[in-house]
């Protein structure tokens, strides 16, 4: 990287600025040709590069009684929010079943098949649509040259107006792409994972913040089953609470305490925490499971972005408390209900009005597949779920018909007693005895093949029609927007 453009020059006094990559000194170029060299790199004594430097952990200054009340209030709200998300999580779990990623063996009886040896194969309609959507979106958002594209107008917005807007935009684009591809190398895999969840369930989340462990800004994927959103929210901005469930090893928790991010309080060793249904399904698809060792358990943290009216930190109007709750980031260890962190989550006031009401800082970004009727969007599981089930049933009928055509089951006559039931489960190539009643008996002279019927041409045509119609519905939300397309939609 030849130079790093500074985002803070004043266009009235400074033509442009750059940072010496060897010394870290900030070079400020003035219109008269003078150059001011700032060896602090543009940082003040209070600026240590941590976004939380100006937002201290006020949990260190609160009484335990107040902290317990906050933990109870926030924790009870999170549990209620988690209950309201349970059905959505169930849909995501079933979506992974319909994706046919978990290998199911043929069988019957206790394995769930209607007949012994019945096929358990699933139609790949949903799987194909999800993989196509993820691959298409990944190619658009993660091109080989880097994900960032800048124009001269973007350069003016970030660097201020100057005589070389195109050059500044190109330099900023180059620097950002270098950062995302060579420094923050997890950005690409994280984005691809987010796009997979987005296509399947309809939503993906990214968390954009400065990581205290890596000491740099990051954009991390958050699996949607680990997001707990308050019931009735229309979007992230209007949600009463937005909570991320974080699983953290004891060593990482201790590192966060040493760095001063969390309170240095004793937290009991983590107990066995039941995984949610989606995480259990993910483990099943992977073919792995929890070790069962107590020593390997992780802490479960709730990092909640909510509003609180904390005594001593009230919002004031003309010096008097207004009663308006303020936005905070509250981190709680779930099992012990210990408050580890309470920091202000207020965005900087960009209004000229000093009395402007506080607003929350945006931390999470929501990526929707198809906007839904409420907070949770529509994904391919909603669009293709029923069709996938129908085609799965049809596929199994065809496979089982072929199996029974080649290995038919049959009945044979057993003459020593009377038939006492009518529940027959004949496996391919198997036989079931038939006990006659009183009177003449003719079972095709003691042996008869089970009367299986081949699928008709009408049934085959129906399968093709369902598959064609469903595939069209699944691709309705896919629009190719690659560079150079004249018919690409606006935005």
Q: What's the end-to-end separation, in Å?
A: 31 Å
Strand order of the largest sheet: 6-7-8-11-12
Largest sheet: 5 strands, antiparallel
- The count of strands amounts to 16
Q: What do you see in this structure?
A:
This protein is of the alpha+beta class and 491 residues long. It is built from ten helices and 16 strands. Helix content is 32%, strand content 17%. A hairpin with a 5-residue loop joins strand 2 (26-29) and strand 3 (35-38). The relative contact order is 0.12. The model is unreliable at 1-11, 41-50 and 108-112 (pLDDT under 50).
Task: Note the main attributes of this structure.
491 residues; alpha+beta; 5-stranded antiparallel beta sheet; 3-stranded antiparallel beta sheet; 10 helices; 16 strands; 32% helix; 17% strand; globular
Describe this structure in a few short sentences.
The chain is of the alpha+beta class and 491 residues long. It is built from ten helices and 16 strands.
Secondary-structure topology with pairs:
Layout (H helix, E strand, L loop, with lengths): L15 E4 L6 E4 L5 E4 L25 H21 L1 H13 L26 H17 L10 H8 L5 H19 L3 H15 L1 E9 L4 E7 L4 E3 L12 E7 L1 H9 L18 H10 L12 E10 L7 E2 L2 E2 L4 E8 L4 E7 L19 E5 L11 H27 L3 E4 L17 E4 L12 E3 L7 H18 L17
Helix pairs in contact: 2-8, 2-9, 3-6, 3-9, 4-5, 9-10
């Amino acid at each position: 990287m030849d130079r790093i453009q500074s985002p803070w020059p004043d266009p009235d006094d400074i033509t442009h600025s750059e940072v010496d990559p060897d010394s870290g000194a900030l070079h400020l170029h003035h219109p008269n040709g003078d150059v001011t060299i700032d060896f602090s790199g543009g940082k003040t004594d209070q600026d240590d590069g941590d976004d939380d430097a100006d937002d201290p952990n006020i949990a260190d200054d609160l009484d335990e009684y107040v902290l317990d009340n906050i933990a109870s209030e926030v924790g009870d709200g999170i549990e209620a929010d988690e209950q309201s998300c349970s059905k959505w999580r169930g849909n995501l779990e079933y979506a992974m079943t319909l994706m046919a990623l978990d290998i199911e063996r043929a069988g019957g009886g206790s394995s769930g098949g209607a007949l012994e040896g019945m096929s358990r194969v699933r139609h790949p309609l949903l799987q194909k649509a999800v993989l196509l959507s993820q691959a298409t979106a990944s190619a658009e958002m993660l091109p080989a040259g880097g994900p960032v594209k800048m124009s001269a107008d973007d350069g003016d917005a970030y660097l201020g107006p100057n005589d070389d807007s195109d050059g500044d935009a190109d330099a900023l684009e180059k620097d950002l792409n270098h950062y995302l591809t060579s420094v923050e190398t997890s950005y690409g895999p994280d984005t691809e994972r987010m796009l997979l969840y987005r296509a399947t369930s309809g939503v993906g989340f990214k968390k954009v913040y400065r990581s205290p462990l890596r000491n740099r800004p990051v954009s991390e994927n958050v699996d949607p089953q680990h997001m707990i959103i308050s019931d009735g929210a229309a979007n992230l901005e209007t949600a009463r609470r937005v909570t991320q469930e974080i699983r953290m090893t004891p060593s990482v928790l201790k590192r966060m305490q040493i760095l001063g991010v969390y309170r240095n309080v004793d937290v009991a060793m983590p107990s066995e925490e039941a995984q949610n249904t989606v995480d259990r399904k993910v483990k099943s698809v992977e073919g792995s499971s929890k070790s069962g060792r107590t020593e390997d358990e992780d802490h479960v943290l709730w990092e909640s972005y909510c509003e609180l009216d904390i005594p001593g930190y009230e919002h004031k109007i003309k010096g008097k408390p207004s009663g308006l709750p303020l936005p905070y980031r509250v981190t709680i260890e779930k099992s012990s209900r210990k408050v580890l962190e309470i920091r202000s989550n207020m965005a900087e006031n960009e209004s000229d009005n000093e009395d402007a009401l506080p607003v929350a800082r945006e931390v999470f970004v929501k990526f929707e597949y198809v906007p839904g009727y409420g907070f949770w969007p529509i994904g391919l599981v909603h669009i293709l779920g029923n069709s996938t089930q129908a085609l799965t049933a049809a596929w199994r009928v065809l496979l089982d018909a072929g199996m029974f055509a080649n290995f038919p089951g049959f009945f044979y006559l057993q003459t020593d007693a009377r038939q006492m039931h009518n529940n027959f489960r004949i496996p391919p190539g198997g036989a079931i005895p038939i006990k006659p009643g009183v009177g003449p008996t003719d079972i095709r002279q003691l042996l008869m093949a089970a009367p299986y019927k081949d699928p008709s041409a009408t049934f085959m045509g129906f399968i093709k029609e369902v598959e064609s119609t469903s595939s069209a519905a699944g691709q309705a939300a896919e629009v190719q927007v690659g560079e150079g397309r004249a018919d690409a939609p606006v935005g």
